[in-house]
Amino acid sequence: ESGFRHRRQVPVAHAMGLWQFERGGGVAGVLRHAASRPHALAACQALLVPATPEGVHPALEFNDDLAAVFARLLLFTDPKALPGVDQPEEGYGYYVRNWRPGKPHPGTWAGHWRNALEAVAGERVGV
Q1: Which of 27, 63, 110, 127 is deepest in the core (most CB within 10 A)?
Q2: Predicted model pTM
Q3: What phi and psi values does residue 62 have, to the nearest 5 degrees?
């Protein structure tokens, strides 16, 4: 949502971390879901963060390792398989379904998808 520019949602800090997690939404969901809970608890223990929404949420603002773990674990909560690299439309659906952004921007999705592919591949890709 923030394009990795904000660690605290603007203008109001409802969401924290580079992946913009809300306390009662994504944070609570990852801590509660059967597929992600054991991994979230282990990560919180390893990173010395209380494994509660009240402990994790503020920690996400400055703990990028924790934020990355929670972003990855959110994907564990979706019963559908990750979309393929050649499926940006399905990727957008996956994003909206899991992150539930308040103001999604479908017009910028193709560019973000391409940037992600380039980051993973370490080069320019033609999608």
Answers
A1: 27
A2: 0.84
A3: -120, -5
